[in-house]
Amino acid sequence: MPCLFTLAALVVVLGQTYAQTSVTVEAASLLQQIDGFGVSQAFGRAAEFRDLLSGDPQQQGLDYLFNATTGAGLTIIRNRIGSGTTDSDSILPNSPGGPSVAANYTFDDDDRGQVWFSQQAMKYGVKIIYADAWSAPGFMKTNNNENNGGYLCGTPGHTCSSGDWRQAYADFLVQYVKYYNARGIPITQLGFLNEPDYVTSYSSMQSGANEASSFIPILYDTLEKNGLNNVSLTCCDAMGWNSQKSITQGLVSAGMEKYLKYITSHMYSSDPNSVIPTNLKTWQTEAADLQSRWCATWYSGGGQCEGFTWANKIHNGLANANLSAYIYWQGVEVNQFQASSYLVASDGETLTPSGRLWAFAMWSRFVRPGAYRVSTSGSVSSTGITAFKNTDGSVVVVFLNSGGSQQTVKVSFSDFTPAGAEAFVTDNTRSVAPVEAAFSDGTVTVSVPSRGMLTVKLAAAA
Ligand SMILES: *[C@@H]1O[C@H](CO)[C@@H](O)[C@H](O)[C@H]1NC(C)=O
Ligand SMILES: *[C@@H]1O[C@H](CO)[C@@H](O)[C@H](O)[C@H]1NC(C)=O
Ligand SMILES: *[C@@H]1O[C@H](CO)[C@@H](O)[C@H](O)[C@H]1NC(C)=O
Ligand SMILES: *[C@@H]1O[C@H](CO)[C@@H](O)[C@H](O)[C@H]1NC(C)=O
Question: Is domain 36-371 classified as CATH 3.30.565.10?
Answer without folding.
Answer: no
